[in-house]
Structure prediction request, 556 residues.
Amino acid sequence: MAASRKPRTAKNAETMAASQRAISISEFFTKNRHLLGFDSPAKALLTTIKEAVDNSLDACEEAGIPPELFIEIRPDNPVNLGIELSSQEIEPAKKKNGNGKTAASASTKEDRFKIIIEDNGPGIVKEQIPRIFGKLLYGSKFHSLKQSRGQQGIGISAAGMYGQLTTGQPVVVYSSIGAKAPAHRFEIQLDLKKNEPKILSGDETIWDKERGTRIEITLTGSYKRGQHSVDNYLEQTSIANPHVHLTYKNPKGETMVYANSTTELPPESVEIKPHPYGVELGILARMLQDTKSRNINAFLKDEFCKVGAKTAETILAGADIPPRKNPKRMVQDDVQRLLDSIAETKIANPPTDCLSPIGEDLVMAGLTSGMEAEFYTSVTRPAAVYRGNPFQIEVGLAYGGKLPGDELAKVMRFANRVPLLYQASACGVHKAVLSSNWKSYGLQQSKGALPTGPLVILIHMASVWVPFTSESKEAVAHYPEIIKEMRLALQEAGRQLGRHIKRRAREKDALMKQSYIQKYIPHIGEALQEILLISDEEKDEVIATLTDTLERSRKL
Prediction:
């Protein structure tokens, strides 16, 4: 029998208003942490490492330092991880468990890990450490229009928040900015109501590194191998970042080293101003109010890239706005006319020195070091634009060799050199691969599926602002301009692959024909001996001549 419920009581406006209050950004993401990539223990483990690695690589590259990273996933309760213990460790482990079970029998899906990421970067000044690791939406890259891995100022502080929620442990940060400056050790928690850092301790310390940053986050997670694993993420990171030296220690104590194949850092990306084509009505209105320019003509030239005197004159004439009008006195109708005129004016594409693509040679080097194949190729497209944002697409293919030939092709997706492991079917990269005609390049492909064969496809998007489908940055949005550039790059690389496959097919056919001829040459010699009544010595000479001719034709 269903339980009886109290009848609904009416509330007036004053009563309802009393329950209203502001929601801090940290409170919002505490309840909606799935939006940031913390929706499962396995994914949370990967997201935490990804955010920390992204920050370390950006810091090292900005400081002009070839990155050297150490990543460790250390079991915080090894008895419950199914990890083999030595005989000396088993008894203490049983006592710690209190249940007398061995490690293997006490294995669980979710366990506590201490995540450690250490770099050789420039370090972080003491005053900034609490805000970087204990405040959501705090960073230096959100307003900067240049290529970088991090964009929103959420990731690493959200990782610390997740660790705090699941284990109650603070984020521990070591940082040193140089040999002459003292190192510092902080323990930080996030005040979820105020979105402010809570400093539990922050003192000078002795650290054996001259310069760099070390982060320790204890969290509840799940370690596994496979497509969505930390292992796969770090392997792909080394492919897209051949200048990075990675040392990785997994929970089982196994150490893997991904050595850098070059010491040359990627070209430095330069910050650019917004492009007029990428601005919207509300943003344009705000820019007009915030500008320091004294008139609208100077505003257009000062606040946007690729707007010179003639372009500004054309825009203002089309909008019927006086060049000397004060930007702060622009009304809604003026702003709308200005925006419409911008859309109708031909403006050059934004500069591309804000981008830092991997480059065709280094894409090839990454693929060569990461897999054993018989054929490699890479393509870097010229820069293009979506919503006023410049971007570049790069594609690399590896085919044959020791790659599995009876499986679907493996697709590796990257955005600003960062591997994208989740939400493949929702990603524009996936759509571009599926919509390409791989049959024309000699591969098998079912309708609506990836091609089948020993093939790895690498696609990288470099942009000042990657249009991710969510805050967790796992899939690229389906902008037509982006899909088009990806398909063009795939077609160019596919044609090179097609020529290789056809050449191999011709060689295989020729070898098969030669094997048939070699098989029947002795019979031909015997037949000629019977017809021409030649000696055995002459028959052997005929067979040798035929064999030699066949060999010379094969070499030709």
Q: What stands out?
A: The first strand starts at residue 68 and ends at 75. The chain has four domains: 25-258, 276-344, 360-501, 506-555.
